[in-house]
Specification:
By secondary structure, this protein is mostly helical. The protein contains 19 helices and three strands. The two termini are 29 Å apart.
Amino acid sequence: MKFINTIKNIWKIEELKNRILVTLGLLLVYRFGAQVVLPGVDAAQLANLSSQTDGGLLGLLNAFTGGAFSNASVFALGIMPYISASIVVQLMGIAVPYLQKLQKEGESGRRRINQITRWLTIAITLVQGPGYIYNLFATLPSSAFLIESNVTFVVSSVIILATGTIFAMWLGEKITDKGIGNGISLLIMVGIIATLPQAFIQEFVSRVIESNGGAIMVLIELVIWFVIILASVMLVMAVRQIPVQYARRTASGGYEKNVFGSRQYIPLKLNASGVMPIIFAQAIMFIPAAVAGLSQSETAQGVTAAFSDIFGFWYNLVFALLIIIFTYFYTAITVPTNKMADDLKRSGGFIPGIRPGSETAEFLDRIMSQITLPGSIFLAMIAVFPAVIVSLLGVQQGWALFFGGTSLLIMVGVAIDTMQQVNSYLLNRHYDGLMKTGKNRKAVA
């Protein structure tokens, strides 16, 4: 009953209700587009493409796009070109003075960086599009293509794929502006969730119907799944509280003096970068196999095989290292310890035992480095857990993707971030938060 009351409270807030409806509507448009097949492709002959994406790197890409990749959809490339462009722009921001200048210009600089990212997204899509089309030629029979001229089909399809990616990017930005949650992350999460029921059904059939372990194995897997979800939630929510003391000015006998005010805390998150290191690392992991595939040498073929097996040792080792590196990188650019120290000094606050100013910034930076190391290692361990459970329990690869890895961490991180935004609306309107129970709060006059 209390949960139902909380849901009712959500719908009482007109702005929040409209934002939720806009978000659901735009997500529905994205899911509809994922089912629209490219013009000139016979949808009835896509079985070979679906079997190609049952596992491995292509299976993961298909999960990110919510099945659009195996459907030869207009959204087949999904939002990944935009993620790749964002990575390139942020990496260039470290070394390119022009981008560094834009980062310091506030809102106008952010808009300019977003525009650069959009143009780079188009460029990346125009490179990836022909590769996807030629993969269709190599996978599907010639009778699956209804346009006789290959040149016409390639040109038109690349333009459509680029348009689909830009449209998906626009949907994500509109969700962020007009809806609730981070739009780009929500598009990825919805695509992942779309493949969850089918993956579980395939695992259930394998275990129960085909007598490969029975129902008890399904129950054990579900228990492990919930434990991993709990661990992921703890990772996302864990914080290190730094005590802060504020000085309060009082007037006494014509003189002003400072007395100690209330003690508060600066919450430094164990995983301040959220799911972005996972997304960044996953985007980078597509590169080695793609580059090695251009060569026919034995070494290149070995690299292609190693980095196409997302459950293999070398893939997961490199993946884990990239996650740790990107966690440090993204934390460094999203947690401005110098600005935090300056704001603390201006507001009359200080960390007990630490001098305000540069020493406070160095202290915060040192604490962030200390908590980021275990956080990044834990994040990497959860990310590679699907490979562990496949080798130990023989779980179906499609179902194993949800036992940690990119899929689960994105779902947990995005779900918590969205719930926190809904929670803030409820608290601002004097209702109990989404993660709490109880009755309406009365406004304090």
